[in-house]
Amino acid sequence: MAHGGTQAALAGHATHAGHHHEPQSFWRRYIFSTDHKIIAIQYLLTSLVMAAVGGFLAMLMRVQLGWPGRQWPLLEALMPNAFKGGRMDPDFYYGAVTMHGTIMVFFFLTTALSGGFANFLIPLQIGARDMAFPVLNMISYWLFPVAIVFALASFFVQGGAPGSGWTAYPPLSDREPLGQTLWLISVFILMLAFLAGGINYITTTLNLRTKGMSMSRLPLTVWTLFVTALVGLFAFPALMAAALMLIFDRVGGTHFFDPAGGGDPILWQHLFWFFGHPEVYIVILPAMGIVSEVLATHARKPVFGYRYMVGSTLAIAGLSFIVWGHHMFASGMSPTLGSMFMATTLAIAIPSAVKTFNWLATIYRSKMRFTTAALYAVGFVSLFITGGLTGIILGNPSTDLYFHDTYFVVGHFHFIMGAAALFGVFAGLYHWFPKMFGRMMNERLGKIHFWLTFLGIYGTFFPMHFLGTAGMPRRIYSWEAYQFLGDVATLNHIISISAFVLGAAQLIFAFNLFYSMFRGPKAERNPWQANTLEWWAPSPPPHGNWDEAEPVVYRWPYEYSPKYAPEGVDHIPQWLPEPAVATAGRDGAGAR
Amino acid sequence: MHQVTERENRRAGAVVTLLIGLVLVAGVASTVYATKRWWLPPLVSATAAPIDRMFNLLMVSIGIVFVLTQGALAWFVWKAARNPRALYWHENKRLESTWTVATAVILTAFIVMGYQIWLSVHTPPAAAAEKTAVVEVWGQQFYWTARYPGPDGQFGKTDPQYVDFKSNPFGIDPNDPAGQDDIVVDGSKGPIVMPAGYKVTVQLHSRDVIHSFFVPQLRVKLDAVPGQVNELYVEPTEPGTYEIACAELCGVGHFAMRGEIQVLPESEWQSWLAEHAGEHGAAQ
Ligand code: HEM
Ligand SMILES: [Cu+2]
Ligand SMILES: [Cu+2]
């Protein structure tokens, strides 16, 4: 069995070998587990189920937008309340809009990345045995299903799911039925869960790094997950405060946001976007980290510009707190204030561009192994370029005045959040699956999944920019009444059909995931010949992670294809004391 | 584990190059095609001409960057499937600082240009300007209404106690002489009128939730927020009828909150004012 540690390396720090874990009951082991890896998998699987729910709602929305006014008797038979008389009920449509956005942003992307990957990777990649606060970690996970129950319950109460969008602007959200209160409670609980998780990630990263793992040797995934947790620490409380105030307005007779009682609806927008803009980076930063890591590993080439990568991560995190006003250019803000937000917004495009150039330079003259994980990482770069470029048009308030709240914005953020972040999740899943489950995923199915997803995404979201230039407002149940839109029917048919292809492609992924989990071929410790510490642990790692002592770190994580390495050796893992050891075999296996 | 031959790997790389190449070509081609079919609706506003110029400049710039970066990506991927060994190259301070600074310079240029336009569209017409008009537009679930000061140029006082949804929905005070000639237009029954060649100030209000006044052909969009008045300035150039859409989710009827603006030539505007002076009701 491949094992990277040499006798000498192990002997040097075999101090903590007595880290025993008693056999546990099924419940302690898989349900109320304090093991960061089990919690990670719980988070991941739950968030994937939520992605399926959110995706299903999206398909229903595309049914309506592709052919507004058409009758769907079959759907009526399945969902009589949503399709009264065969046509989708507008009330249901707006509930679907709200819940789709909420589920995808909060219950899927944020939880998959900052719940799933953060939990799995941080301890393993820094050489720790678990999170700093394992019980808090378990609580953080179990708050998540509670939040889900509150959110989904809104579909079944009087008045249905709230129809005010994921941004829940008052006074509309003041007037929505009971479902809106459930939504607010749900969001509040979820933010609590994320805060608990974030405290764990920050403490763990700062305090539990193994010997030799300095901050300048951290893998970029850990860097981004750590910085993301910091961003969350400052962003989530703003939304929690806003949610609490709105709950008071709705049930307690206060008027924080209602002008009829002296409140100010714009205050909500400031609080929401002070959270909301950092939130979009909470989603994309970990995906950026994953992609950097996956690219380097599968391209057999060091990440280009490690320092700039870390620096740009920090710059984005800092700047993300002073750009929120670009979501409010049309709210009637003072032009001076708007100018400030324009300058900071375009400033944040600089570190984003730096990252893109670094990925291109990493791929340049690499020797790529086109695994599914690598395909998703490359796809991410393409999607990020497309989505980032349209941000330049929106960041200019003069042009944004036309595009704000049109489908152009929908195209922009779906490229980045809906697609690039999704690709980050897929790249990470295909890459770390062998470590998580000790089995390999099917590569052929993975590739088909990638091709369909990549084309499906471009087919779905690229034409949305044209809907936007034609002037189609977002969040409309039907576009039929508007003459200035001209012939958007064609575009909407294309978009809906692409979306159905995209949705169907995910069934291939679901099959591959569950089949491989139980039936996939057994994985080695280090199937991709990677350098980071998690690949030194068994697949899957036991409770406590390291079967012997914690690894010791000797170098940065991106030592791929170094010049000094002998023929046939293209990587020097972090845990190997001497590069010479690598001569003993691909990952030092022969050295034992 | 994971045994892939060089040949298979090269083929997989070629497929990725093909996909990205397809995106590049189809992206550019569909955008060029869209300019003929799904582009900005014809412009009928003098104030907004610089906005369209800025948009064109930005579109061309990001188009160039799109082609260069996606092209580089496709090319590097193609090569990466064929290189015998990866290059050990992970830092180049000069290259990195060059592209950082170059990006910053280009973005700064965009900031400066955008800043000037942004300020210009927020500049109220000078008091001395000859041809000005004011219209008060109210959004409510789910239609627009408008009020004009009438021939005297003065809005009358309003008070909720006078509101009568049939005959005086704005609650114009019958005792205020300035209000006698005010004109109220119910946008759900007929178009809101504006004069061509005038600098028009639109004062936006909302009666209930946030709406957004969006007239694509005039290139204006501004939220109508309850409890505050937002002002926008526009100079319509072409007489004609243009649609108003609501751009802010305002409830189930949001998608149907369509209205119309009728831009009248100057002479017709004057006679329209005279003809409708004193109409406070919803009747048209
Ligand atoms: C080049 C960098 C970027 C720039 C200049 C930029 C600019 C903007 C601007 C100005 C808006 C507001 C548009 C409007 O509503 O009128 C916007 C919306 C949005 N952006 Fe970006 N953006 C960039 C990158 C990103 C990234 C990396 C993400 C996510 C990971 C993102 C996610 C979003 C989302 C979710 C919205 C819409 C929110 C909503 O209204 O529901 N953007 N962007
Ligand atoms: Cu933002
Ligand atoms: Cu509306």
TrEMBL record, chain A:
Its EC number is 1.9.3.1. InterPro entries: Cyt_c_oxase-like_su1_dom, Cyt_c_oxase-like_su1_sf, Cyt_C_Oxase_1, Cyt_c_Oxase_su1_BS. This is Cytochrome c oxidase, subunit I. Keywords: Electron transport, Heme, Iron, Membrane, Metal-binding, Oxidoreductase, Respiratory chain, Transmembrane, Transmembrane helix, Transport. It holds the Pfam family COX1. Belongs to the heme-copper respiratory oxidase family. The chain crosses the membrane at residues 38-61, 92-118, 139-161, 181-202, 222-248, 280-296, 308-329, 341-361, 373-395, 407-430, 450-471, 491-515. It is found in: Membrane. It comes from Thermaerobacter marianensis (strain ATCC 700841 / DSM 12885 / JCM 10246 / 7p75a). GO terms for cellular component: membrane.
From TrEMBL, chain B:
The chain crosses the membrane at residues 12-34, 54-78, 99-118. It catalyses: 4 Fe(II)-[cytochrome c] + O2 + 8 H(+)(in) = 4 Fe(III)-[cytochrome c] + 2 H2O + 4 H(+)(out). Residues 130-275 form the Cytochrome oxidase subunit II copper A binding domain. GO terms for cellular component: membrane. One of its GO terms (molecular function) is oxidoreductase activity. Subunits I and II form the functional core of the enzyme complex. Electrons originating in cytochrome c are transferred via heme a and Cu(A) to the binuclear center formed by heme a3 and Cu(B). This is cytochrome-c oxidase.
